[in-house]
Amino acid sequence: MATPESDKLRRALLALCPDDKTIVCHQQLYEALGLEDEPAKARLRSRIKDLIRRGELRRIKGRDGCYTYHREAMPKRAGEGFGRMWRAIRAAKPGWTWQDIAQITRVDYTMVRRYAVWLADEGFIAQAGRRGNTRLWRSTGRAQEQRVAPLPPIRPKDPFEAERGAACRLVRLMMEADPNQPHVRTKIVKELGILAGRFAEAAKEDESHGDHDQP
Predict the structure, then answer these.
(1) Number of domains making up the chain
(2) Structural domain contains residue 210
(3) In Å, how far are 35, 55, 69, 89, 152 from 58, measured between CA atoms?
(4) Which of 72, 86, 124, 144 gives 20 to 30 Å between its CA and that of 176?
C-alpha cells in the first residue's frame, strides 16, 4: 500500500542501493531518513517487513537488519485500490466522507484523500455539505457515466534523484569508510562531482542576480 512514509523509504533505498547486490542496513536508513527516536525507528522496521513480504527487500543470511533492494518488485501503481475506491464512491449515497470510503474499501485514508481531491478537481465528485467540521461528498453525473476507475497521473520522477543518491552515498563513505584510503577518496570526489555539477553553476547565477539569503 502506497503511503507518504513508504514512498520516502523507497526513495532512500533507491538512493542507497544502485543495484540489487548493494547491502543496506537499519542504521543507514535511520540516518538517511533522519530518524532518531525509537518509536520512529520501530515504524520504519514495520514498513521494512512490508517490503520484505512484497519481495522488494531480501534479508542477508547471517546479518540481522541487513538487506538487498530489488526495485523490479516495486509496485507500478495501486490500480486495484483505485478500482475499489471508485466502485465505493459511485455506489455511495450523497453525504459520504473520506473516512467512510477508507473503511469500506480498506484503503489507506491518505490514499483515499489524495484520490478524492483529484476526483474533485476533475469534476467526478462534488461537496455535498458538512457534518460539523467534516466535508460531505457526492458523485457527479460524470462519475455515473464512467464505470472504469479514472486514474490520476503517475507522480513525476524526482528531479533530484541522482543528487540525493550521491548525497546518501557520500554520507555513507564518510561515516563507514576510511577517507585516507585512495579508492575511498576517489569515490568521494565522484559523488562531490555529481553534486557540484548540478548546483555549482546555478549557485553562481543566483549570486550574480542577488538571489540568495541575506545575512
Answers:
(1) 3
(2) yes
(3) 22, 7, 7, 37, 31
(4) 72
